[in-house]
Amino acid sequence: MLVVCGLLFFTAMAASQRPREDAVPPHFVPYRPLTVARSERGQVSLTLDVREDPRTRVPAFYFRGLETAPLIRVFPGDTIRIVLRNDLFDGDFMVNDVSLHFHGLAVSPNPPGDDVLMTVAHPGQAIRYVVHVPHSQYSGLYWYHSHAHGETYWQVTSGLSGAIIVEPPTRHRPAPEVMRERVLVLRDAQSAPSVWAVPQESRRHANRLLARDPRWRYPRAEEARRNSPCAPTAGMHTTVNGVPGVTVQTAPGERQLFRVINASAKRYFDLAADGQPLTIVAIDGAPLSTYPGTDHSSRAVPHFVLPPSGRIEFILSGGEEPRFLRSLCYDAGAAGESDPPVPLAQLRPSPEVMPIRQVPAAMAVPASSSTSEALPLPAPARSRTIRLTEDAHGYYINDRMFDMGNPPLVVRSGTVERWTVLNLTDEVHVFHIHQVHFAAIDENGHRIRQPYWADTVTIRPRTVATGGHVTPGTATLLVDFRDPVIRGTFVFHCHMLDHEDGGMMATIRAI
Ligand SMILES: [Cu+2]
Fold first, then answer.
1. 479 CA to middle of ligand 1, Å?
2. Cα(497) to centroid of ligand 1, in Å?
3. What is the 32 CA–ligand 1 centroid distance (Å)?
4. CA–CA distance, 79 with 56 (Å, rounded to integer)
5. How far is the CA of 393 from the centre of ligand 1 (A)?
6. 3 state SS of 141
7. Mean pLDDT by groups of 10 residues along the chain of 511 residues
8. Which of 179, 271, 320, 504 is deepest in the core (most CB within 10 A)?
9. Beta strand spans in 336-472 (E)
10. How far apart are alpha carbons 346 and 318 in whole angstroms?
11. DSSP string computed for 97-132
12. From ligand 1's centre to the CA of 81, what distance in Å?
């Protein structure tokens, strides 16, 4: 992903990879803006209820009485206050606990903030989150999702997640380009009935089986997988804002800002648009221009691999003819799951679309909001190696399955560290660290020419030569612990969430 982004510009490649079978999606529905919870006078307060959807029997967020996960819109410096009420079934010990993680926000890991280690709502309980978004937060796209270890895969693939947008500061220079905004929340959802529609009382047991026993992992067609990474996955389908796909109206030639979250528990999307590049302006919330030494605010690429939990913001233009935004097939490795091609949105030209200046939902393209980003990064204070492995019993970081009793890595607040993450397995993993951003500077031995801030990165599978020599997949990261607010104990983990539930998570303490 990183090398591709840095090196390739738009070619005929996207068009040549375009699958043919999805020319006319019959079930697309018109794009509707998400329900919004907006900050006023410096704060946004809301209550999220977690209940079982009576139709699908899976956990869902309810907001103001409706089954929906609101888009939370705040400004840098605002406070997010959430009451999370767990109204799920109270069965076995710890079954159906829920919690929230504020993914990508540079906020405190201590209660009542973005703590996923101690803060959890048991069935029948309500808990309170107070999250202070710093003035230095990059203006861009983030998200919140349930993070109850052992339940995370089940709950996120059920849809317990929502978008957060940090608005550009009101005093914004240079003047941003104004365009229509389209927020797309992509999810891998379970088709009902599926093996996931297990009775609630046995769900945690099912999660354990899933994590520990290969036979119970994510449902897939084993035989089909061996022949093609593009085969459909049994029991799963993709949704866009909760529906199979959306149509987006454009004026001919109009530029629109697409803000896309991969809210899947473990599905990849390799995003591409018909007949045009993706003009990227921000990744994982951070405008491209925020990385020191970056001399551009946008970059055109033919496609972009968006890992689970990643976000990307890019500009597309409406054409004379309908055009698709789609995901290409992604190869997650010999032991990985299928990520088949799927159309996500159709851009439809319409003469009735209002000129942009009359549209109240028009949105400024995020751009750098601070001058401190121009300063070069300090030299890394220390280097670490992080090894990702798995076997029939579970998933490991540096040979340890997650346990609250494991000693944390200890880092010094105020420093930057150099981490080399090794993938010694035959499938991709998605490295994610809470509270801070990092920049990948090298992938599989190739220097990344145009680094950018991110909070997720794909670590490609190992390769095994014919003589048996194993070369791990690698990414080298500069992890930024300079923010003095980030003190306390938090986690890093694989964002393939059954891997996280199965043990691929570890704690870190910033002092
Ligand atoms: Cu993983």
1. 19
2. 7
3. 33
4. 34
5. 14
6. strand
7. 37 40 67 95 97 84 96 96 91 71 97 94 94 94 94 89 88 59 92 46 49 44 54 83 92 90 96 95 93 90 97 92 92 89 92 61 49 73 97 92 95 97 96 97 95 97 92 97 95 94 94 96
8. 504
9. 338-339, 342-349, 363-364, 382-391, 394-397, 409-411, 415-423, 429-433, 438-443, 446-447, 453-454, 456-459, 463-464, 470-471
10. 10
11. -B--EEET-----STTSS-SSS--B-TT-EEEEEEE
12. 31
244 CA distance to ligand 1 centroid (A)? 26
CA of 279 to the centre of ligand 1 (A): 29
Q: What is the 3-state secondary structure (H, E, C) of 444-458?
A: CCEECCCCCEECEEE
Residue 493 to residues 12, 110, 341, 352, 502, Cα–Cα distance (Å): 36, 18, 27, 47, 11
Distance in Å, CA 3 to ligand 1 centroid: 20
Centre of ligand 1 to C-alpha 500, Å, is 7
Contact in structure between 492 and 152 (CB atoms under 8 Å): no
State if pTM tops 0.85. Answer: yes
Task: Give 265 Cα–ligand 1 centroid separation in angstroms.
Answer: 11
Ligand 1 midpoint to CA 503 (Å)? 10
Residue 412 CA, distance from chain mean position: 27
